[in-house]
Amino acid sequence: MNENLKFLKEVFEPESLPEESLPEFVFWGRSNVGKSSLINSITKSKIAKTSKTPGRTRSLVFFEYEKRIRIVDFPGYGYSKIPKFNELKIDRLIESYLRQRKVLKFIFLLIDARHGMKDIDKNILYQLDKILGSKIVITFTKIDKLKNQFDKQCLLQNNKQVNEIFHKTFFNTSIKNSNDIFLLRKFLFKSIEE
Ligand code: GDP
């Protein structure tokens, strides 16, 4: 593993956002959805923390990859110890980032393939949609954990829902499948060539 992913900055307020000098890709989702693992796989690094302790609730973490793009790691949501009313509304820092950031290319909203879209994911997606629309990409994670035909059928249903009801592009991924990661990387790098 090389360390082409470099920590740039952790930001707690909109005034401290870094200069808009590289295209940015945001990763977001419920705590434990597999966000850090996916960031590490896509960037072939291990810098994004994989941890079950949902300590970070409010900051945005910026990484720079090969001096070509930035990865923005959003705080996981849906952690049960945080009162729901604090979570259902996108907070000031996140909203401000989403509204003002011209270099934002795509936001990957991660959904655990075993659980599908929960109410909180739909709520976040609804709010995101009003700000970003076509920049949202749904990414189902941990698909290697779908063992039986029924689970796989559910994933197809969830894919269909994303496509036909929410009108979003989607990826089905597992960090254990290099082809899934390859396709996601390809999508990401192709978007900065255009
Ligand atoms: P985060 O809280 O969203 O950053 O989630 P993590 O990346 O820390 O992952 C949570 C747990 O899911 C960890 O134990 C990971 O090893 C595991 N995990 C993440 N992605 C996958 C995957 O694609 N397949 C499997 N089987 N486990 C995964």
Point out poorly predicted stretches: none
Relative helix content: 25-40%
Strand content: 15-25%
Number of strands: 7
Report the span from N to C terminus.
29 Å
Identify the overall geometry.
globular
Average pLDDT: 90
Looking at this structure, what is the CATH superfamily? P-loop containing nucleotide triphosphate hydrolases
Bound compounds: guanosine-5'-diphosphate
Order of strands, main sheet, comes to 1-3-4-2-5-6-7
CATH fold field value: Rossmann fold
Taking the sheet with the most strands, its summary is: 7 strands, mixed
How many domains? The number is 1
Cα-atom radius of gyration: 16 Å
Structural class: alpha/beta
The CATH class: Alpha Beta
CATH architecture classification = 3-Layer(aba) Sandwich
Topology overview:
Layout: E1 5-11, E2 24-29, H1 35-42, E3 60-65, E4 69-73, H2 84-87, H3 92-100, E5 104-112, H4 119-132, E6 136-141, H5 149-164, E7 169-172, H6 178-193
The structure holds guanosine-5'-diphosphate.
The site of guanosine-5'-diphosphate (GDP) has 17 residues, from helix 1.
What's this, in brief?
This protein has 6 helices and 7 strands; from the N terminus they run ββαββααβαβαβα.
Word description of this protein:
With 194 residues, the protein is an alpha/beta fold. The chain has a single domain (5-193), classed as 3-Layer(aba) Sandwich (Rossmann fold). The chain contains six helices and seven strands; from the N terminus they run E-E-H-E-E-H-H-E-H-E-H-E-H. The chain has helices at 35-42, 84-87, 92-100, 119-132, 149-164, 178-193; strands at residues 5-11, 24-29, 60-65, 69-73, 104-112, 136-141, 169-172. A seven-stranded mixed sheet has the order 1-3-4-2-5-6-7, sandwiched between helices. The longest helix has 16 residues, at 149-164. The radius of gyration is 16 Å and the shape is globular. The model has no long low-confidence stretch (mean pLDDT 90). The structure holds guanosine-5'-diphosphate. Guanosine-5'-diphosphate (GDP) binds next to helix 1.
